User: What shape does this take?
Amino acid sequence: MRYLPKSPAERQEMLAAIGAKSIDELFKSIPEKFRLRDPLALPGPLSESEIIQYFKARADENARGYTSFLGAGVYSHLRSVVADAIIQRGEFLTSYTPYQAEFAQGTLTAIFEFQTLMCQLTGQEVANASMYDGSTALTEAVLMAERLTDRDYVLVARSVHPEYRQVLHTYAKNLGLKVEEIGFTPSGQIDRAALTPEKLSRAAAIVVQSPNFFGVLEDLPALAQAAHASGALLVDTITEAVSLGIVRPPAEADIVAMEGQALGIPPSYGGPYVGVIATREKFVRQMPGRLAGETKDAEGNRGFVLTLATREQHIRREKATSNICTNEALYALAATIHLCLIGKEGIREQALQNLAKARFAQTELEKIPGVRRTFSGRTFNEFTVEFPRSVKLINHELLKEKIVGPYSLGMYYPQLTKNAVVCVTETTSRAEIERFAAAVRKILEKPL
Amino acid sequence: MYPADYRYTKQHEWVKVDGEVGIVGITHYAQQELGDVVFVDMPKPGTKIKLGTSFGTVESVKAVSEIFSPVSGEILETNGLLSDAPEKINADPHVTAWLIKVKLDDPKEAASLMDAVAYQSYVEAAAKDH
Assistant: This one.
């Protein structure tokens, strides 16, 4: 797509064609007081070399040479240059989700492979061509549950990522959807006792995250059973997709909403990332977004189509299943390439390394006087610890040692200000974990 | 082609009134225009519907079409046959592939709709416009 600016002569020509003398006349229906008369308060233009300098300076602000123990929804994992090389091919880099779909067999093949991989990872029957990110995927999953059950009330665990819950609340506010948050137990899991039969009988879904924001795995089979007994669905969200290399797939959930960033996409400030929705085949018509399907052409050759497009906004307008049909085709492709490179054994090995290193870090931290695990539930590569001091203070000191400290829970959980979620992936060496534990010990030994 | 004891709407639905119950479906003309029907979405029994308002959808390979109710009342039953075999709408739209049975608020309401003769000439005119 090319962007060509208009010349003054062309503007005049266009105005003449619709019978307006000037731009002012064109906009005369807009009341005077709403018209912008002053120029926008923006800095002046920069030359090419100034722009390059500006962005180099911004790039230098990146925390190179730091060791990070920060997860909480975004994860540092090893990734191959192969994915970058392939997604930068012109055929992929410039293509948006196809509207003239069947013309783009290569893109459709890639989407179909992505969907297949997402089904294999999540244990679900169908997955779509991807969503914006994990948080919007979760909200769409909840809206899907609302349509499927005809109930306008959902029970959401407070152990779901706080920002995912904020996105859900934003959508719910003007849709008449009632969201009730459910607390957690000393295990770090959703408080099942608060899921009363009365609440469940009105609920469209129980919404949990597993591993949850505290790093703890939820008991999905039990939650599914409780939901289904009352005609509700179970929605499971996953922020750390690598966990699926070792954790049992959430096959009991009715809808899985996942962030795919961990699958070969580098952490970056604000994304873009890639969301995943997967569900049971019988719910496919209520699933938002695009779906590539396999078929045969008139000569019997294998080919791909966009299927069930009749649900979508370019055909159904305001009656569409969802108006968030745009996907993240390029990053879905990156995740597909990444998964194909490392394979089934690779992701299992990666997950095992995460688990082992997180266990090691946990053991090292627990040796420090006053540091203890907050929750008793089982974890993957993140776990919550309680410190004898405010986490903010500790993290401030750690930064001086070139260590990005764990995620402080105080902002979203005021009762947990001394608690933090520690994340350890395969990218962190044993020596760095030991350096981290030693630094924490030193900070805590210093008098306040 | 169009049963004489049914009534018809301009959006190509039919209703057969039997005492206080109305049976509702889409016409032969509608199924022909839609093409191969692949999915039918109907509300649950107990849902109240109103003359002229949409109560469900019929999806073909080409499009999803709203179905407008030819009567007002409460849905008693939806046709279970169509969840497994939506293509019956193409094969037998006037008899076995009915969509819903409705407990009518007013059995006389349907009298305002077209009869078979009027509908026949209505679709002939529509076909000519094509």
